[in-house]
Each structure stands twice: as structure tokens, then as C-alpha cells.
Amino acid sequence: MRTETGLAMNAGVSLGALRKGAQAEIVALDETAATTTLDTGELERRLIEMGLVEGARIEILHEGFPRRDPIAVLVGDSTIALRRAEANAVMVRRLKD
Amino acid sequence: MPKDDGFPPRPAGPPRIALVGNPNCGKTALFNALTGARQKVANYAGVTVERKEGLFVSPGGTRVKVIDLPGTYSLRARSPDEEVTRDVVLGRRADEEVPEAIVCVVDATRLRLNLRLVLEMKKLGRPVILALNMMDEAESQGIAVDAAELSAALGMPVVPTVAIRKDGIQPLLDQIDRTLQVAKSEGLAPKTAPCGWSEPSARDLRDYHLEVETILAQAVGRPSRPHLATRKIDSVLLQPAAGLAILLILLFLMFQAVFSWARLPMELIDGGLSAVKGAIDAGMADGPLKSLITDGIIGGVGSVVIFLPQILVLFLFIQILEDSGYMARAAFLLDKMMGGVGLHGRAFIPLLSSFACAVPGIMAARTIENRTDRIATIMIAPLMTCSARLPVYTLIIAAFIPQRQVLGGWVGLPGLVLFALYAAGILSGLLIAFILKRTVLTGAREPLLMELPAYRLPRPRNVLLGLYERARAFLVRAGTTIFALMVVIWALASFPAAPEGATLPAIDYSIAGMIGHFLEPLLAPIGFNWEIAVALVPGMAAREVAVGVLGTVYALSDSGDAMRNSLAGLLAHSWSLPTALSFLTWYVFAPQCIATLSVVRRELNSYWWPTAMFFGLTSLAYGASFATFRVASALIGE
Ligand SMILES: Nc1nc2c(ncn2[C@@H]2O[C@H](COP(=O)(O)OP(=O)(O)OP(=O)(O)O)[C@@H](O)[C@H]2O)c(=O)[nH]1
Ligand SMILES: [Mg+2]
């Protein structure tokens, strides 16, 4: 029971909200949480093509300027740069801040 | 529609193999190793934006055509460069059948991402060979890839390679031979296997991803660890505000170096040219031929060639930025700010290439997915001062700006002025992009999803080869286009000869003089004299020629002592400062380059945009030069 709520709460965190140094695991992709003008399904596919897929471990390596945007994220063996606006579509479970 | 008639009975002609893979995995390096070509290799995604062909003879004696393609993450093709790859691989080009075999190139250090495309390619039902590239880096990072296991898991032959060292090329050639042999024997019995590729859904992509994980578990001994050095370097270069400052300092150093590093070789070339001219002056009888050689060729072509060292310094910097892996970082750092004017961070890459020449810069804009973003980037590319304008800038700077140290002796004034001119181009480009994006080119902002490649030490061989190619191209141009133009200009400036008892210099009576005097009233409001008017017209074919024309025109109009001065000295003597400033301003915008306009037409498949570019930039140039001339004249009180 408790773990379930814990999970649910964690699943509410998006990659777009994380700060530099945070480590997490991707639990879901939810396009509706991001601001995008792409066709439905397109952002999700692009994210997967760049390795941002359920189960992947990520770490935020660098933040841009100003407003800490975009971010550079370590995903598996590559480093991907993306904007927070799109990173909001990536739901994560925090591992370490 | 894809042709799915399997292996068509083709007329004689070498079999073709296509190199396909993610961006920056070493396809072009492999292409060069296979064919001996020297296509551009650099450390950022999107270097290759066109289809390129080469030939090699396989160990079995077959002539094979290799096709190098732009990198892509998927055959779904989101940008024009990826469409090139898709169309070749799926046989959608009208003039070309599907390639007989595909060599999938993967970066062994980034298999997780790279293998997904390989699975997609397998669906095509074509023979596929996997080139497991960058094995040297994989080894040094302790990634143990078992090629045999990988081959078993993927169901295709796997050949480890190190493309830049030509390692593994022989085994790859042997494998290509075997694969083509099998394909040929199957091709005799017409194969009707349909193309099994269809656009993958998100669900398909997830399935591919899971499959990749299974394969990796099977074939990769130790999980890959990210490149540590890259992370350390980035923790300095990608700091939020400081990172931007470092980027600016780098660009600033580049312009300082253009002056300071090139000074000595330029003086040497100048000395050499003067010596030759002196020898001809002394040893040849006066006459048209002597005038053609000294005034037309040495005065014209020579005054362009002298700038080769500066152009090479500029290219050296650009090459190092490209080879090191910094380009993608610059795009990352600038994304937010470029977003402010409605441009994509990635636009930095085509725009920086435009400092070399707008033509490849405009082609590099193919990597920008969104059409309105792409058009905006293309429209401002000519405002990034190209290397052909460098001679114009530095000539005027040398003539009018004193060689002085400023800011506490740290910075040379000429370098500072040069930086300011480049900055003026960049800022007006951004302003124009801003206006375009608010008015005619409105549209959604494309997401930024970009890999940051691992840093690599630029390889001296690659850098030197690149510089050699540039120098060669420049000299060939000087020896052909510019030479021919200069001979024409010299003739126009020498004939008809002055009438008996003429009071003005002979050139005033020549055709060039007449053209110049005819155009002069048009350009007088912006402070241009008739000599400049003459220089602007041939400058459309090659901008450096403007400098050459001034060289010839002044060589022909002056006599006696002034002849012995350098062109810069002559200009300092005969132009006012407002005229010089106005001329510089003109060249910040100077849109009159035929090559640029025609590549815009081709890339955008429209006459409208190049026309708009020509008239828009010409009016800007005129307006800005007018303002500069008037303000400078008022300030100086002339
Ligand atoms: N260490 C190492 N570096 C390599 C190898 N092959 C290529 N490179 C480097 O990888 C970078 C990319 O090489 P390219 O050949 O331009 O890659 P590409 O796949 O053609 O890239 P795009 O045209 O952008 O799709 C360059 O910096 C090369 O020097 C290799 O086997 N080992
Ligand atoms: Mg390439």
C-alpha cells in the first residue's frame, strides 16, 4: 500500500523539473505533460529514438543559461541535450538528487 | 512509394552499397577509407547533408559503388538531410534503384542508441553488413564488444573497424564481396521479397529498444561507461553563464589571430610580389603586355592572393571547433538566446560554417527540421561575414585603422574592429531573423533533441588536409575565375586609350571608367567614388575580386611614386574616412554573390526567397552605408 502511493507520487516527477546532478529512472512518457506543437505521438517517438524510454537511467549533467535551460542528460551511453519544455514529457522516479 | 520488387534485373553497372547509420558514427570516415576520397569528416552530427558517391575495386575484382549518406536516427526522416537517406535506402529516387546491399555503421561506444536503427534496417529485407566502428575508443573505455556474439544475435555479418586508421577495411571489403556474391546469385532467381519496412509506431520503437537491451546483454561484456574526460571538460565549458563567456572569448581570439598570426606570411607574400613586379618593371619594355602583368595580374590577382594566410587562420579555428566536438556545445549554450529571436540552437552550426562560405552554410541548414526555421536561418546566413569578404575588411582596416594596442595593451585595435564588423553582421542577422519570425515565417518552435558527442583531439592530419584543400581551392579560384575576371577588368580599364592631350589619367577614358562614372551618381549619396562603383559589379561573381579591381584601377590611375605604395597605402591616401567606413558597412550586408543566391534557389526550390534576399540585403546595405557615411561625415565635420 505505502509503496504504491510512494510510486504514484514519484511518477509525478518529470525530467523537466530536475536539477543538475539529479539521477533518475524513466517510468513513463506522457506527451500531454509537455508543451509541444508536434503532431500527437511525434514527440514520444523522437524521445524514444534518442534513448529516453521507460527503464533508462538518466543523470542531469549540465544546465544551460539563462533559466537553467536547456539541459544535457546522460542517457545510457550518450549525452542528449533537450529543452525543459520537452523534458516535461518524461516521467521519472528519482534515485538521487 | 517504395519499390518492393526485390532485386531488380539491372542493366550492367557496378553494384551499389549504401552507408547508413546514426549521425557522427564515422560513415564518411569509412567512405574515405574505402574509396580514398576526402569528404569532410568532423565531430558533430550533420556534417554530411548530401548523397556522395565513390568507387572501389573489391578484393574479388568487382567494381563497387559506395554511397555515403547523411546520418539519421530513423528512416522516418524529419529533416531534408534525413529525407535524402530515406529516399536512397527505400529506392524512392526516380533515377536510382535500391542499393544492392547496406553497410550499417555503428559507433561501438554508443551501441544502445545505434543498434535501434540497425534493427530498423534489417526490416528492409536487403543484405546488411554491420561495420562496428570506433573500436579504438570502445577499447580505451573498457567496453568489451563480442563481434561474434553480436553477429549471431543480429543475424548479420559484423566487422570491427577503426575508420580513421583504416583498420578493419580489408575484412570489410572481403565481407562486401561475399555479401554481393550471395545477393547476385539470389538476384538471378528474381527475388520478390517485399520491403518489410513501414514507419515504426511508438510501440514498435519500444520493442526495438527492448530487443537492443537483450542483444547488448548477450554481446557486450562490460557495460559502457560515459566518456570521463568529456564530462570533465564539459563541466568547465558548459557552465551556465561562464560557458557563454568562454564561447565569446574563443570567437574573439579567432579574429585577433586572423590579424596577428597572418601578419608575417602576408608580409612575405607582399615582398615576393613586389620583387617580381620590380623585376618586370626593370626588365620589360613599356607596353600593354607589361601593364597587363603588373597592373592586371600582380595588382589584381596578387592583391587577392595576399589574403590567403588570413583565410587559412580563420579556417584553422573553424576546423578545430568542428573536429573537437565543440560545435554541438555552442548550439547548446546558444539555444536559449537564439530562441529569443525565434531561431533554433542548431542554427549555430550552419551559421558558423557561413563564416567560411555561405554556400556550405546554407546547405548545412538541411539539418533543421522545421521549414520556417530553416528559411530564417538561410536568409541570414549571408550576413555571417564569409571568408571572401575578409580581404575587403582587412584591406580597409589596414588602410584606415592604426595598428595600436588598446584595452591596456591586450588587444590589437585592427582585431577589435574586425570583431566589431563580424558582430555587426551577426547582430543584424539576428534582428532580421527576429523580424522574419514575427511576420512571414511564423511557426512552431521545433524541439531541441541533440546528441553531444564525446570530445576528440583534432587529428593533425585531418586539420592539415582540410587546410590544404582550402588553400588549393582558393588558389585555383585565384588562378581561374579571379584571374579571368582581372584580365577582363584590366582590358576594360585600359581601352580605349586616352585621347591626345588628355588631362585626366588614362583610365578615366576607358570603358571601366565610363561604367564607373555612369554608376557614380547612384552611389555618391553613400560616399562611393567611381572606382568603388567599378569594383562592385565583378564582386558579384567573386567578392574578393572587389579588392583585385581596386588594385588594378588604382595601379592604372596612379603614376610615379604612388605606384610603389601598397594598395592599402593608396586607399588611405585617396579615400576619406567616411567613404572607407561606408564601404565596410556595405560589405557587412553585401548580398551580391551569385553562388549564394543560386544555392538558396536550389535549397528552397523557390525564386521568391533569393529575389527577396537580393533586394532586401541590397536596400539594407544601401541604407546602412548611407547612414554610416552621413553620420561619419557630420562627426568629422566634412
Ligand atoms: N576514434 C575514432 N574516431 C573516429 C572513427 N571513425 C570516425 N571517427 C571520428 O568520428 C567523427 C565523426 O566522423 P564522420 O565520418 O564525420 O561521421 P559521419 O557518420 O559521417 O557523420 P554525419 O555525416 O554527421 O552523419 C569524426 O571526428 C571522426 O574523426 C574511429 O574509428 N575511431
Ligand atoms: Mg558524414
UniProtKB/TrEMBL annotation, chain A:
Q: Where is the Ferrous iron transporter FeoA-like domain?
A: 13-94
Record SUPFAM superfamilies: C-terminal domain of transcriptional repressors
Keyword set, alphabetical order: Iron
Q: Which domain of life is it from?
A: Bacteria
- MF (Gene Ontology): transition metal ion binding
Output the Pfam families linked to this UniProt entry.
Answer: FeoA
Spell out the protein name for this chain. Answer: Ferrous iron transport protein A
UniProtKB/TrEMBL annotation, chain B:
Please state every residue range assigned to the domain named FeoB-type G: 14-182
Question: Which keywords appear in this protein's UniProt record, sorted alphabetically?
Answer: Cell inner membrane, Cell membrane, GTP-binding, Ion transport, Iron, Iron transport, Magnesium, Membrane, Metal-binding, Nucleotide-binding, Transmembrane, Transmembrane helix, Transport
**A single GO molecular function term of this UniProt record:** GTP binding
User: What are the record's GO terms for cellular component?
Assistant: plasma membrane
Q: Name one Pfam family in it.
A: FeoB_N
Q: Which residues cross the membrane?
A: 237-259, 297-321, 341-363, 375-401, 413-436, 474-493, 532-556, 568-587, 607-629
* PROSITE patterns according to UniProt: G_FEOB
Residue positions binding GTP: 21-28, 46-50, 68-71, 133-136
Entries under InterPro entries matching the protein: Fe2_transport_prot-B, Fe2_transport_prot_B_C, FeoB_GTPase, G_FEOB_dom, Gate_dom, GTP-bd, P-loop_NTPase
**How is it placed in the membrane, per its record?**
Multi-pass membrane protein
Point out the signal peptide segment: none
Is Transmembrane tagged as a keyword? yes
Gene3D superfamilies for the chain: P-loop containing nucleotide triphosphate hydrolases (3.40.50.300)
Q: Where in the cell is it found?
A: Cell inner membrane
Question: Which residues are Mg(2+)-binding?
Answer: N32, A33, T35, G36
* Record-stated family: Belongs to the TRAFAC class TrmE-Era-EngA-EngB-Septin-like GTPase superfamily. FeoB GTPase (TC 9.A.8) family.
Task of the protein: Probable transporter of a GTP-driven Fe(2+) uptake system.
Q: What is this protein called?
A: Ferrous iron transport protein B
